[in-house]
């Protein structure tokens, strides 16, 4: 877990000026965006009373705790304590930030203090599909993903076979003909995994019907993973 980037959300799922709680390897994190859209990933705990910062508010580029209103700047340093507005905040009062990146339509982080090796270059155009949460270990989700069949959206690619490719240790590509999706793997907990799915292609082509098409594929994949009796049956995208 220490040596890789992990996606923790689709980028469009956390809007500027908002925060969301996520889990990675059992650790509780907060993902938030400042007013300009900059992404941040911190430990989801206020250093004052331990309140979850994901329940707080974003104001003027700072994340505030809901409990006593303590506010923290983008560097994690506490910058404002409402009960003592004229006092200088000690430098020791700060949150724990984690490395972060926004690539492939996903927000990424790492559990190490220093960023892992860089992710590959971003795709030119991305259309988000969904984040799929599965009641299984990451290895089981990856095994099912590797064995799945991707049904193309456009008619000209319907007879194409599926190619599975490892783009990065936690990022995978499934392609069929001229179409492809990217799947980021998040190890939420020992028996809980999230797959963050995007289409490699522009919204003018895939928004709406294309997104719905690949969402149905993703939902079928989840059903097969969580229904052991179907594991030996047809792969996702194939007719029963």
Automatic annotation (TrEMBL):
SUPFAM superfamilies registered for this protein in UniProt: ISP domain
MF annotations from Gene Ontology: 2 iron, 2 sulfur cluster binding; iron ion binding; oxidoreductase activity
Rieske domain sequence ranges: 5-109
Keyword Metal-binding recorded: yes
PROSITE patterns assigned: RIESKE, RING_HYDROXYL_ALPHA
PANTHER family xref list: 3-KETOSTEROID-9-ALPHA-MONOOXYGENASE, OXYGENASE COMPONENT, IRON-SULFUR DOMAIN CONTAINING PROTEIN
This protein's name: Oxidoreductase
The species this protein was found in: Telmatospirillum siberiense
